## 1
Amino acid sequence: MVVGAIGVVYGDIGTSPLYTLRECFHGTHPVAATRDNILGVLSLIFWALMFMVSFKYLGFVMRANNKGEGGILSLLALATSKADPNSRGNALLICCAIFGAALLYGDGMITPAITVLSGVEGLEVATPVFKPFIIPITVAILIGLFSFQHLGTGRVGGIFGPVMCLWFLTIAMLGIYGVAKAPGVLAALSPWYGAKFLIQTTREGFVVLGAVFLAVTGAEALYADMGHFGIRPIRRAWFFFVFPALLLNYFGQGALLLNNPEAENPFYQVAPRWAVYPLVIVATCAAIIASQALISGAYSITMQAIQLGYVPRMEIRHTSSLERGQIYLPQINVLLMLACVGLVIGFGSSSKMAAAYGIAVTLTMIMTSVLFYFALRRVWHWPVWKAALLSTVFVVPELVFFGANALKITHGGWFPLVVAVGIFTLMTTWKTGRALIRHRLQAGYLPFDLFLEDLRNNPPKRVDGTAVFLAGNPNGTPIALLHNLKHNKILHRRVVILTMVTDEVPHVDPLRRLEIQHLTEGVHRVIGHFGFMEEPNVPKLLELCSDRGIEYRPMETTFFLSRETIIPSPKHGMAIWREKLFAVMSRNAQSATAFFGLPANRVVELGIQVEM
């Protein structure tokens, strides 16, 4: 478990030594590589890792897990679990979480690009001959990485841990090699050097905090990936292996800069000349693994967002018969690949790309701290002063880091913000649009008790078999059922009204999976409960009903769905441009037949027009 945690969870933060110190002293807003500045920056990196990773995330935030699952959407479910769903405060929290999730998509686009490009740039250190080929090689690796995603992480997951263990052992040995040449660099463990650096450099020190933050950008990913391994293996891996290796490497690079302030790529230049090529290979493999973790995270977030109703239905492929968390979303994969390739070509170097890196994560961390406060208050019932004090301790440094990163907006930091605003707009438009559609349809719903009464008083012709009507409203009469009676004048002998409900938990207890009501006239109401990390499958759900008095015979069952055609209208609802956007999203959503795993040759769709 510990080796697996090293491989999957620490990929992002484990590749940060490739570019962090280089950005501090040779990046967009560098500081002079004097002895005091080098020791000051190293001190800030050390204490940033101690505070953000060891104290905040491993010490506190990871305790806020939703039945073992972490991440900002899981934290949202905790923070809002005992609040009025219609309150303005609750709506604000939801907006914070959704924007934080949207920011993670920007991070998921930049991380593969910057990590792979940073690894390949080592070839340029070995010999200038490779300089014209850095971008093409990086693009080829990224295309290859995304092209193999459909195979699933399960097939290569076995090598993740060993390769990352080799990576951390390698960077630790490089660090020891560098520190041995200038042991005085270890003085930077004292917070005094960091404080002195900020006091003496003032503006320059504040600006360089944006580069220092690159060392901790993977902290939010630790929380999101917690469900794969659990808290204990992640903590043990960090304190006994990952953290020491990172510190040794940072201090080894710092020792090189003390002896050679002009070193432009200290990560590779700290290595002996003969070791550069092998180091490039190991660094590129580590970068690919780090990218894989972020790509898989984007799939996971999208699946959660689909189940929670913030994203239209998309094709979800399970790539492992053993691990349900291993999924592949073709549409997201293509979008991420195009974004990563575009970033590499557009920015041209990892140093320029570093300016766009960090701002998205700082904002997500701030959102996490805000949600964590409400989790402390509502779930663990902490006093206001105590929860506010701890949350303030988290938020204040994050606001400082955000301010430092905000200075990089014109140098590329705008990219993740534009991506986040765009995705946030899509997610909120879909959620609001679906709510409006439900409201319009509910206004025309026939109360179910009246339907049953009419069925008794005016029985239609009954035919053999079972009819399953999918209904979004667990109380009303499905529109498809009414249309079927209106146009076909018949009803099956057994009618199942099926509603799929996504609970605000990652995985639903199998004992709570089904709610069944056996009504009159051969009508049954079934409510299936799923977690936001589970994929609903109607046939499998109906198989569970066989033990509860509703025998499922696939070849004798017909599924009835209603398909809405959205008509944008300026009269009410959202702004007209958002209604048109919602209509486009609705037309391009995956069909309910495919999403719910229905047999296509047993499905009947009945259309309905809905004016927004």
Note: Residues 2-432 form a domain with the Amino acid/polyamine transporter I fold (CATH 1.20.1740.10).
## 2
Amino acid sequence: MMRFVRTTIELSRSARCFFILGPGQGLVAMVLLVILAAAKPASGIDVEQECWGFDGQVVLDRFNLLSVLVSNPTDRPVEAAIELQKRGAGTDKVGAAIVESVYLSPFASRWVQFFPYVTGQFDEWTLSWGRRSDQRYEVAEPRVGGAAQVVLVEADDLTRSRFSIKAFPEDLFPPLVAATGNLRSILLDHAPRWQKPRRDAFLDWIHGGGRVGLLPGEDGEYPTFGGSLAVLNTPLSSQHLGAGTVVRLGDSDTDETSRFLQETKRSADEDPDAAAGTSDAQYDYQFGQNVFSALRQLTDPQHNWPVIHAISLTYLAIIFPGWYFCSRRKVDYRITLLGFLCVAIAFGAAFQAVGRRGYGETTCVNSVAIARPLQEGAYDVMQWTNVFVTNGDTYQLSHGDGGHLYSTCQQVEKVNGVIDNGLNGSFVVDMPLFSSREFAHRGKITRAPFRLELIDFELEADQIKSLVLKTDESFPEEWLSIKVLHRHQMRDLRPQDDELRITGAMNPIGSYLDMEGQSTRDYYPRGRWYQEESKVDRHKVYRDLLPSLIARALKVYDQDDATKFSLDDDRCRVFVYARSDAAFQLATDELQNQDGYVLYVVDLFIPENP
């Protein structure tokens, strides 16, 4: 239909041919033009291949990688915006569309990468670059699994038989560290040919906890890296880069390589087999809903319920029995309808005026985040945010440059917005007046890093007897909680001068997290429809979220996982829960009132003879 309309428009612009050639010849010319227009290629883009994740699988309730190979089969260049849209039952759209701009030369092809947030194993996703049916492509249903272990190979070397695990082409490695959260380990026997964004993302992934196993190439020599990757050139059999590890292995089929892969599974703090089950997804979904619900409480409405109830009762009384008695009197029906309309408008305005006072008419943003240090004073941040606005408008929500991913995390609702994931990622959304919008965000944020130096560490009967950490001037001042985890023991830390020292009794991580208590904790406010709300204790709301954030950071999904959890013996993990600063806030002048907390997760390695 759209093609016919466009053809008709073109014909109307050249309708003079009808009159010049005469009615009969003009009709023939019009028919020929319609045929030629229909003979044009319906779409300048073909989807040749798609690949989920790093190994063909996705991890639920996480940002995942989707690589799509598109081509231009025509002799004309094509420039288009490709949308990735999640769909619910039938053809209903869910959430906001993810858009990527693409330019293709004649007969050219290229890979385009999307970073959707997958909430269910039966999610349906559609690619589109127009409104016609031939400008739409149904993406294959993602297969659910755990974090990936892959061998990085050159694009033309995917079928090498010397590797027993999934091969991943190096040119598809994402240029954003935010997109590597579901990658567990990499085997590597050559120096990748990468531009700076991919090199930086690879090093950031290692610093955030990634594990790399270096293998000798076909010539028997270990790869030599140049540029910023030269830090991998070490004669040591194992070295730490940030929270990550680089290990030199033997050949790919040796027991040493197999042991590396098995140790990576154990040290990932996640059961790779359980990740494909439903318990993890159920907990993650519940975690997200609880966080968003808690953040919505911080909007702190203070409605004047007595006045609202009085207006409601008065309105009902006017409708009945008031209108009933008016109708019994002989009054012109037009006057009756006009009076009814005036009453409805007047009480609607009254409800709006009284109701909006409950929000103090203040736009505000509340958030919580988990931040892991990367190289050069940056953090890999996973953040959950609730935005409340008093003015209806289109808002651009972003965190500046650095590479950011956004998602509404919706499973049912359609959101009138567009997501641009990438170096200057943003979420543009239409928000009605006095409404809120929650969304998840992951990205690389630059902030003045605080450093922790291990000064003293002593064990007694496998329990921490003494621990002293030296801090610097960048350590957060407005902290809510500081804890340290060693193996399965959780202890509190207390600042003293420029040091952190343990205090209080040891608490097993299983009893502290209390996963069963988390699953039954109610974040939804009750009873607010009939009584005036009390002032929300903001610190208590944020404090109650801390165990859930730590569980999410540890990838612990149920009480059995929490009870069995144990860190590797060579490290301890420090959790600093502090008020967020400007670096973690939305970069927009329209939203000034922003507040939130950040859980900093810092790994410290313990020397062999502390």
Note: The longest strand covers residues 93-104.
## 3
Amino acid sequence: MRYLILISGFMFCGMSLFAQARKDTTNSVKIIQTYKPTLIEARKIETLPVIEKPKPAAPNYTYNIEPKKVKTDKTVSNIPAADLYKTEEFNYPSSFVKVGYGNMKTPLAEFYLNNKRDNKYSYGLQYRFLQTNSELNKTFADFTTHHVKGYLASYSTTGEFGLEASYKQNKFNYYGYKDTSKIAEKNLGRTISNFEAKAYFNSVSDKSNKIKHRTAFNFYNYQIGKAIENDYAISSKIYGNVSDFNDLENGILSATIGFDYTTFQHLNQKSLNRIFLTFDPRFDFKYDVLNVSAGLNTTVYFNGSDTAQPFINPFIKVTYPLIENIATVYGGVDGRYKKQSLKSIIQTNQFTSNYNLTNIYENIKLFAGITAKVGSSADAVFEINYSDVTNMPLFISTQDSFNSFTIINDQANILKFTAAFNYSFSEIARIGFTGNFYNYNFKTQPQPWQLPTIEAKVNMNFNIKNKVYPHFDLMAMSLQKQRTGLSETNYSTNTINAFYDISAGIDFRFRPKLSLFVQANNIMATRYQRWYNYPVLGFNAIGGLTFIF
């Protein structure tokens, strides 16, 4: 019992550390993007939805369902352009080549080369090309994308070592420009390039009392126009088992240590250099039927000139088996200081022209939920969480000739409810549903600009005699409020209508190594808007062949 008293004291100290007043997190760089008078081939990244599909559980699984944490620094995930290519429901045993063509003069080419199964090495190379040419002269919504990726990994009795590298280039346009602005029309083109590299080592050991670690070094160079961001990060999770004592069992003591150095440069402006140090200790154990994880989320921030700014938040998660092997309830406390970056801004809304690099502080997040499993066919999760966020980013339209976006930050309280359900009819059919419901309360802003209050996704997959694989996706989003204008006393507002998007396709494997695919997006041909003044492409479809070798 005395150990429980010590642990309680430890958590009380963590709560008192959290009680420190949040510090000034503002580090704003506002930039009005300039462009050379050239019109390049374009890529519209987000205007059709890529649906984050619920993953129906495979039949006869035996794992326990782990609840998925809900991020609130960006309440709505970015919706990139529709995957005109559709990932097959079966796994390729080795390498493949995929080619296709669509109704918007859409060529698709993809290949994936890898070695056969090997217990010592794995390596591979992948390339993807996708382009549209819809001749929508009034929208300039077409895009071009190239993506190449390579990897190498080796396995031994001491651990796994791996290298990865990728390069992705997206060309797209501003196309929400004002029709009367001929200057804007000549400066629509934007190009995003992103190079990423990773080296990692995961140690392994058959001895339960030996300390292990998972260490990774990550680098990326991200560029859009004249704005360039470089990021160097290394993190290591060190962990080991702790001998049982008294009523505490299955103890694991761990700590994740991270170093992140980010540079940002635009035109002739002075470079912005930032350092983020993280230290997250954890103690995981089982007490009676409770599984407990307790510790701290610690971030120390340096921006090159100010003194170090520490941010410390407690972390607690407790799970309880309500009905053994059927239902589990969980709850806890979380929170963290988070980096805002050029990469995350553009990946969320690539029509942004003012880059506000104000960091985000999730002061506290309270969460509770229940997971359930019914036999080997169905599983579900329900979660409610409340977050208090400093400097939550909101996208608003500027009044420039492109109708581009900028970011304003505000204090936010967010209540979110998530429900997800998956059901499998043996291997013949699988269906998944996820829904998110939000309630926002901002300190200064009257509306959650460009954020929905409801979003839902449905995914269905079928397997007909291991030859025909139809699939169906539906994505829906509630209406949103939109603001145009930087002045807090003089701006206009609009309503973006609620919308839904239906996608469907079929994969037909008429030979063991040769299959036909057809994918159709936005079947209802609704020119809805995810971002104000940027209507999505209409109905689009692509079909082709996949050859496995």
Note: The radius of gyration is 25 Å.
